[in-house]
């Protein structure tokens, strides 16, 4: 799934010399097959989610949207409540920070173990075996959603801030290890070799040869992870680990809409501030966008060079250690819970409860049906996300030409609005979108797809808009210079690469969306998530285990398929 | 929403205290040890956060211990906290109590409200949705083709027993329109039916009565279709190690306090009122054997 940067900046247009020869007809055929496959999948999903003759929209529930909207302009501004919101926001922020720091530690260690560079040419077979096992374990760990990790960890650790931190650290750490491993392998290994040849110890050689070259990329990735961790920390709050998500759940359960709106506003401010800050640091240390990171492309940018550390970046780096200590103190983290006898006992108990897996009541048809519902939900969610991206994305790309005059400032205003819309969509947790969607739809695939679609739309729209911002404008200029009318030049030159970005990120987000279906299942949407939640509520761990195995298989299948389609489209 | 912000603060303070406490490595430091009480979140959190901190204070006065209410957002979280020992005393529903006893051998049911030995669920419907009140379990079959919401997934009165009677009447879940919903709590069920999100709902009789009494529901929107036969429901459950952890006789003190709550005393009456009860009475594990059978039958207990 990753494009490596195998050589130091090569001319971007130069074709890779080793690429096998593929005829134009073959490329066309591959694209047609992929398109047909996607179309067939869409048709199937629509057919599955919209049973013939069934009613879809719950007319009576629609009135509630009125109530909901009526309070939107009157959020609760009670001073006491605001102080609760402030404390909750601090907790969310602290959990996200600690979780991403944990993930980076796991990522650094795991990345070193996984990278070929660190081991030299021919690692001994136990190392190779160990790495294979590690790779498999990491795939399994990250295919389980943070929220599901939290539900399990609560069973073992009780209501402890460690639950939230570990629930973020495990799947994000697994993801980071893979990215870091690839980043290490992507830097030229000549410095490492020469250090080793000169007699340096393996570890010191790694530290001196790898870290300087990769540090900017790693730092940039860390800040990207932090943004993701913040969103996930909010989702975890829904499971009762505290923070804004927890407050949001309580207010939703009490149906205090004015409080809900205050909390949503707090979420937006927090998420917006973190993203601005992260953007700034990322553009300072390395020119890598979120879009690049999300598909594992550490791009040596052709045009823009890293600007070097600005004062604000230096300041934020200096603040990291105090911030981590402060967060540690604020949530009252103590690793003691990890090693206590009770934890070991309950951990062992949980594992023995989970094994051997058992089929749910109703057997294979129920399990397979739930898996198919999960895929259907993800497919429909992506349809909505792509629609949002196509509608909002073009406006959310930072305008590059014509920086002056009233037209330019108008375009800028539109840009700000579009980015804000996307921010709202991705900052409100999908669980909350699902609760809102359930007002208007009967429980099932549709409200789940709607909730995930809105949330994913916010993320996909941003990724695609960011990718479009970095598109090469030269083809357009050349066409214009050759006398092609402005609009035509833009459409002809920009459409193919835009479509390419859209397809790449859509496939990538689809893989994540399948995993995310677990979260809307928790609020009673459909699919494996609903089954998982129901069986967890009955403490029926053998069936929980088989549901988790089923989601692992679905994830792997979807990832493999996605990789194939992407390769076919790229050729 | 009287005193809303205050209760929110209490809730948060409780949570932070719990987090801080568990962070200090529970088990050691007996001087700081807190007796955790919790309850299934079967109603509006604001109401629960008014009721349980007050009760925790009562327990603290009576036993001389540090007592803290630990709020949670779903039913199974209470069972987990009880299993782990974060909570030593919990107000459980019939089903959650049986689940917790299965997971903590020797935990015991000690007391229930006067109304819990013969508890009832109600099937309610939105007035405009069609179904008319009926007598007898068989009438449930008339709900085919309508949308229905339960309360929490592991609610006894909001899911387990209603589902049991539906099965008795031969009404399958697939006969309903769409999948059944899980509103999360009884209040949410009443609201969902009143505003038409769902045509029919299964709700606990005591919460329904309290809601009607408080005038929070417009009776022209909702009507009661049927009252189920009685069964045993809510009760207080204690962990077997409560005396080891907090000193001999703690369990007796707690029980005495509960049984001694008296309508004549105004502070007691206020607490009992929030529980929707006249008094607490003794109960025993075997009172819930039928709930256990039904739960196994419906696949909600392994």
Automatic annotation (TrEMBL), chain A:
<feature type="domain" description="ABC transmembrane type-1">
    <location>
        <begin position="371"/>
        <end position="562"/>
    </location>
</feature>
<keyword id="KW-0813">Transport</keyword>
<keyword id="KW-1133">Transmembrane helix</keyword>
<feature type="transmembrane region" description="Helical">
    <location>
        <begin position="364"/>
        <end position="392"/>
    </location>
</feature>
<dbReference type="InterPro" id="IPR000515">
    <property type="entry name" value="MetI-like"/>
</dbReference>
<feature type="region of interest" description="Disordered">
    <location>
        <begin position="1"/>
        <end position="20"/>
    </location>
</feature>
<feature type="transmembrane region" description="Helical">
    <location>
        <begin position="314"/>
        <end position="331"/>
    </location>
</feature>
<feature type="transmembrane region" description="Helical">
    <location>
        <begin position="147"/>
        <end position="170"/>
    </location>
</feature>
<comment type="similarity">
    <text>Belongs to the binding-protein-dependent transport system permease family.</text>
</comment>
<feature type="domain" description="ABC transmembrane type-1">
    <location>
        <begin position="89"/>
        <end position="278"/>
    </location>
</feature>
<feature type="transmembrane region" description="Helical">
    <location>
        <begin position="233"/>
        <end position="254"/>
    </location>
</feature>
<keyword id="KW-1003">Cell membrane</keyword>
<keyword id="KW-0472">Membrane</keyword>
<dbReference type="GO" id="GO:0055085">
    <property type="term" value="P:transmembrane transport"/>
</dbReference>
<dbReference type="GO" id="GO:0005886">
    <property type="term" value="C:plasma membrane"/>
</dbReference>
<dbReference type="Pfam" id="PF00528">
    <property type="entry name" value="BPD_transp_1"/>
</dbReference>
<protein>
    <submittedName>
        <fullName>Phosphonate transport system permease protein</fullName>
    </submittedName>
</protein>
<feature type="transmembrane region" description="Helical">
    <location>
        <begin position="543"/>
        <end position="562"/>
    </location>
</feature>
<feature type="transmembrane region" description="Helical">
    <location>
        <begin position="260"/>
        <end position="277"/>
    </location>
</feature>
<feature type="transmembrane region" description="Helical">
    <location>
        <begin position="28"/>
        <end position="46"/>
    </location>
</feature>
<feature type="transmembrane region" description="Helical">
    <location>
        <begin position="93"/>
        <end position="119"/>
    </location>
</feature>
<feature type="transmembrane region" description="Helical">
    <location>
        <begin position="203"/>
        <end position="221"/>
    </location>
</feature>
Automatic annotation (TrEMBL), chain B:
<dbReference type="InterPro" id="IPR006311">
    <property type="entry name" value="TAT_signal"/>
</dbReference>
<dbReference type="InterPro" id="IPR030836">
    <property type="entry name" value="ABC_peri_PhnD-like"/>
</dbReference>
<protein>
    <submittedName>
        <fullName>Phosphonate transport system substrate-binding protein</fullName>
    </submittedName>
</protein>
<dbReference type="GO" id="GO:0043190">
    <property type="term" value="C:ATP-binding cassette (ABC) transporter complex"/>
</dbReference>
<dbReference type="InterPro" id="IPR005770">
    <property type="entry name" value="PhnD"/>
</dbReference>
<comment type="similarity">
    <text>Belongs to the phosphate/phosphite/phosphonate binding protein family.</text>
</comment>
<dbReference type="GO" id="GO:0055085">
    <property type="term" value="P:transmembrane transport"/>
</dbReference>
<dbReference type="Pfam" id="PF12974">
    <property type="entry name" value="Phosphonate-bd"/>
</dbReference>
<keyword id="KW-0732">Signal</keyword>
């Amino acid at each position: 799934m990753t494009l490596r940067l195998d050589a130091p900046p090569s001319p971007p247009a130069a074709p890779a010399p080793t690429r096998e020869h593929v005829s134009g007809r073959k490329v066309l055929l591959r694209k047609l097959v992929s398109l047909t496959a996607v179309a067939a999948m869409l048709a199937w999903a629509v057919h599955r989610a919209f049973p013939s003759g069934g009613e879809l929209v719950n007319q009576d529930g629609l009135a509630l949207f009125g109530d909901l909207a009526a309070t939107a302009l009157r959020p609760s501004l009670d001073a006491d409540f605001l102080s609760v919101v402030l404390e909750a926001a601090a907790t969310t922020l602290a959990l996200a920070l600690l979780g991403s720091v944990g993930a980076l530690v796991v990522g650094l260690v795991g990345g070193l173990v996984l990278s070929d560079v660190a081991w030299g040419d021919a690692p001994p077979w136990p190392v190779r075996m160990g790495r294979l096992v590690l790779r498999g374990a990491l795939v399994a760990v990250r295919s389980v959603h943070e929220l599901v990790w939290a539900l399990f960890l609560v069973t073992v650790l009780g209501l402890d801030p460690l639950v939230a931190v570990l629930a973020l650290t495990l799947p994000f750490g697994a993801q980071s290890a893979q990215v870091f491993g690839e980043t290490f392998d992507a830097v030229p290994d000549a410095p490492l070799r020469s250090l080793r040849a000169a007699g340096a110890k393996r570890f010191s050689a790694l530290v001196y040869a790898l870290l300087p070259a990769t540090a900017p990329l790693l730092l940039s990735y860390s800040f990207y992870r932090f943004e993701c961790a913040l969103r996930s920390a909010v989702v975890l709050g829904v499971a009762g680990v505290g923070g804004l998500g927890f407050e949001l759940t309580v207010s939703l359960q009490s149906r205090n809409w004015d409080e809900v709106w205050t909390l949503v506003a707090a979420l937006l401010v927090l998420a917006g501030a973190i993203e601005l800050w992260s953007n700034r640091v990322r553009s300072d240390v390395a020119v890598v966008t979120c879009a690049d990171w999300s598909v594992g492309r550490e791009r040596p940018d052709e045009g823009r060079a890293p600007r070097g550390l600005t004062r604000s970046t230096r300041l934020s780096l200096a603040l990291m250690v105090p911030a981590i200590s402060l967060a540690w103190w604020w949530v009252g983290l103590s690793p003691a819970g990890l090693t206590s006898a009770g934890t070991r006992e309950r951990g062992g108990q949980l594992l023995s409860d989970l094994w051997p897996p058992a089929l749910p009541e109703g057997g294979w048809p129920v399990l397979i049906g739930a898996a198919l519902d999960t895929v259907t939900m993800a497919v429909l969610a992506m349809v909505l996300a792509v629609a949002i991206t196509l509608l909002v994305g073009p406006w959310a790309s930072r305008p590059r030409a014509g920086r002056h005059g009233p037209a330019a400032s108008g375009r800028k205003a539109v840009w700000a609005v579009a980015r804000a819309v996307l921010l709202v969509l991705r900052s409100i947790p999908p669980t909350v979108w699902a609760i809102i969607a359930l007002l208007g739809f009967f429980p099932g695939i549709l409200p789940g797809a709607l909730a995930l679609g809105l949330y994913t739309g916010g993320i996909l729209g941003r990724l695609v808009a960011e990718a479009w911002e970095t598109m090469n404008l030269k083809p357009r200029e050349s066409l214009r210079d050759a006398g092609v009318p402005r609009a035509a030049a833009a459409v002809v030159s920009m459409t193919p690469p835009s479509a390419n970005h859209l397809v790449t990120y859509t496939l990538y987000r689809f893989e994540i969306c399948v995993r995310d279906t677990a979260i809307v299942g928790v609020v009673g949407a459909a699919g494996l998530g609903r089954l998982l939640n129901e069986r967890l509520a009955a403490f029926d761990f053998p069936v929980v285990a088989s549901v988790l195995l089923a989601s692992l298989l679905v994830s792997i299948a979807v990832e493999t398929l996605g990789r194939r389609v992407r390769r076919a489209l790229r050729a | 929403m009287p005193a809303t912000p205050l209760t929110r603060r209490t809730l948060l303070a409780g949570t932070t205290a719990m987090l801080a406490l568990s962070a200090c490595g529970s088990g050691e430091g007996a001087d700081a040890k807190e007796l955790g009480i919790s309850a299934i979140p079967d109603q509006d959190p604001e109401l629960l956060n008014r009721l349980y901190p007050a009760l925790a204070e009562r327990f603290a006065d009576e036993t001389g211990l540090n007592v803290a209410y630990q709020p949670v957002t779903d039913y199974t979280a209470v069972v987990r906290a009880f299993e782990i020992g974060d909570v030593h005393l919990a107000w459980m529903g019939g089903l959650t109590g049986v689940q917790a006893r299965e997971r903590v051998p020797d935990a015991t049911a000690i007391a229930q409200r006067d109304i819990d030995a013969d508890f009832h669920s109600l099937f309610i419907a939105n007035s405009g949705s069609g179904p008319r009140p009926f007598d007898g379990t068989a009438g449930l079959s008339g709900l085919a083709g309508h949308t229905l919401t339960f309360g929490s997934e592991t609610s006894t009165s909001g899911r387990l027993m209603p589902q049991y009677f539906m099965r008795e009447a031969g009404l399958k879940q697939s006969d309903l329109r769409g999948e059944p919903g899980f509103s999360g709590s009884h209040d949410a069920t009443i609201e969902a039916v009143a505003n038409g999100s769902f045509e029919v709902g299964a709700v606990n009789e005591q919460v329904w009565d309290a809601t009607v009494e408080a005038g929070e529901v417009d009776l022209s929107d909702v009507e009661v279709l049927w009252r189920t036969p009685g069964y045993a429901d809510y009760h207080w459950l204690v962990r077997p190690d409560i005396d080891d952890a907090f000193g001999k006789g703690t369990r007796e003190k707690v029980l005495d306090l509960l049984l001694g709550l008296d309508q004549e005393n105004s502070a007691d009456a206020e607490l009992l009122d929030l529980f929707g009860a006249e008094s607490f009475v003794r109960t025993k594990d075997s009172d819930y054997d039928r709930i256990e059978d039904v739960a196994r039958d419906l696949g909600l207990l392994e």
